[in-house]
Amino acid sequence: MAIFSRILLCYDGTREGRRALLYGAELARERQAETHLLAVLDNAYWIRGFDALAAEAASIEEQSAREILAEGVKKLQACGVAAVGHLATGNAIDRISQVATQLNVDLIVLGHRRCGLLERWWAGQGHGLLLDKVPCSILVAIDPVETEAMSNPTETTGTQTDATDSAAHR
């Protein structure tokens, strides 16, 4: 069996997700891999509500997730990659690992956005668990501009405009 012949791309419509989609599309095209695209709807916070508003909000969220999935499939088609779209509901880490196992993929491609300690604490401690739950390799797409900004915290992305604006407000 060829390496990376069955790829699962995880897509959520974010900048990081689009970068992962781009990396995954290029790899899938080069490898001529069977390609699957997964969007995960984490509805845990809607399940707690019992009124009609919660049901309506959940319906809107699901429709949005379906649109994101369709957008991702179209983007892949535009890159010359045929992909099967999958929509899963639940915890992203659990669902990604379950779908990867069910589809017997040998590579998962997903995006990552760096965050600070407070944001990581608020989001929960599950980020590293995906590595322990999947039976395959993972490619994590990271924005090189963001990585450079993290290593040079004194530099800003707005450069001259930011300095001029802050001086004007003093």
TrEMBL record:
Domain of life: Bacteria
UniProt xrefs under InterPro entries: Rossmann-like_a/b/a_fold, UspA
Residues in UspA domain copies: 5-140
Protein family: Belongs to the universal stress protein A family.
PANTHER family: STRESS RESPONSE PROTEIN NHAX, UNIVERSAL STRESS PROTEIN UP12
Organism: Cupriavidus necator (Alcaligenes eutrophus)
Residues in coiled coil: none
Record's signal peptide: none
Skewed-composition ranges (Low complexity): 154-164
Pfam families assigned: Usp
Protein name per the record: Universal stress protein
UniProt region (Disordered), positions on chain: 149-170
